[in-house]
Amino acid sequence: PTPTAPCILLNLARNVLGCDGCGVRFLPRCGNGTVGGQPPLKHYGITSSISLALPGETDHLLTQRLVEAMKLFGVFEDEEELNHRLEVLGKLNLFVKEWIKEISKTKNLPLSASVSGKIFTFGSFRLGVHTKGADIDALCVAPRHVERADFFLFFFEKLKKHEEIKELRAVEDAFVPVIKFKFYGIEIDLLFARLALHTIPDHLDLRGDFLLRNLDIRCIRSLNGCRVTDEILHLVPNKENFRLTLRAIKLWAKRRGIYSNVLGFLGGVSWAMLVARTCQLYPNAIAATLVYKFFLIFSKWEWPNPVLLKQPEESHLNLPVWDPRVNPADRYHLMPIITPAYPQQNSTYNVSTSTRAIVTEEFKYGLSVTEDILLGKADWSRLFEPPNFFQKYKHYIVLTASASTEESHLEWIGLVESKIRVLVASLERNEYITLAHVNPQSFPGSKDESDFVSMWFIGIIFKKVENAESMNIDLTGDIQAFTDTVYRQASNVNMLKDGMKIDAMHVKKRQLHQYLPPEVVQKKKKVGGQVRSSLDGSRLDSSQDTDCGTPFTSPTSASRPAATTSRWGSRANTGSSSLPEAVKSAPVLVTVLALMQRFGPPATPQRLSSKELPDPLSPIPTRTLRVVKNAIKITLNR
Question: Which residue stretches does the UniProt record annotate as biased composition, category Low complexity (predicted)?
Fold first, then answer.
């Protein structure tokens, strides 16, 4: 029978987009888990395997139970949704080829009819671990005569005219420039790179280092996602086992609140590389065993020894690579996980002392749970139980970002969130702070008629000071450095608008109900009669703090009302320097100072490259805003 148009597009996507890499199950697989009937090699990565043991009946049973537990969280996409994605990518690929031919004709290129481009995928979709409703990371690869300006001007205009393109926006000045849009209901982030080739063949392998010759740095960054993803898939012994294990680990990391590269935890590519290394060490193991081995390996890993999937190779292209022998800054990376494609980079350069401690603790907790699962004392659902962040600490910093319009708010919270790790690094350098734990989840804040508000919470552990009746801790400078950095960055990129504000408030655990709904704050029940210990193995803080909610407010918040009724039915601070009613009635042993003076630029935080921070010499924005220094001073009694 004559194939229909959707069938043609589906086949095109399968043939052109490298569907083994994007998770579509088209390769023949044998009953023992091997690919194409060939047993896996005995040596993967930079060392020999730890075990070549084949899975037993119990392993298969545990893996099936793992799959059933994961289904409850909607991590698997059904065949119909997957085919829809492939059809959309096939249409986008044809759309790009059509545009490449058009732009070639406008430049009077000979034989323009034979010139072509191509769409490549990377990230979770390419790895085959995307979830329902997830976006697709894609790369438009064009031949040498198509320039980046053509992509962001002419291709953008072509997309704008398509009736199925929705929510189209270009971010041309980003570190990795991107066009974002929805195409037939699928969110797509599309990067651009041009290669020094006359045309882009359909079966081009982007892993070849020669393709990077004479490319500008933005093209190299854009290509990096595809090159790293393809290399990871090439280096694992069994793709299907790798994918199922990675799905489980990503679900666990998200549920446990440690999945966020921007906040200093690990992002998707870092988790993928850790799982890939586990697969290399146990090439014949299946998912249930690999999940357990994952926790066994990395709960005992001696950081900062790097995780490598292959020996780094020198391609003599003179591009900067991660190498602590040559680059002094690389020696300060705390949890290095090195990408396998040239130029090799550390995917976890954002990790701080606190986030490493938190992730390490979660590795140990995961090992304890999986040991119980293997012994039949627990089921897989226990591994995916979220922690109760709001019962874990006695002290919290509440960060509030507000803006007067929804559009401004979306821009503002993106910038504020990207700089929270600067505040965490500053808090870590405070001599009285042991740990600063930011919750990756943001929460809607109480807002008046003109503001859109988001909140983040940072749990704080203070050091114990022996032979001291009380201890005064001043966090003013840490907060001031953070707000200066955010306002300066917003000014430098022309984002700063009237109404954009940052507020910071120190609160105790018992005051959290003023900011959050009861079901979020309520104490979690004990599991198996045990209570998890804190990061330092004891109570989170032995001191009796007497501070009852000290605010640090943004410049223009003084005119706001003192408090409003929150959506949770209690009084909550909305950003002014006044305290909530429940706090005012409590004894307060804290001084709140309002120094109406400008502060100089903060010192550059450690472990952050100059590209991540604004120019320290650039002025703090004034316009209608004025940076005001309020104090957060906390008194802790023994």
Answer: 528-543
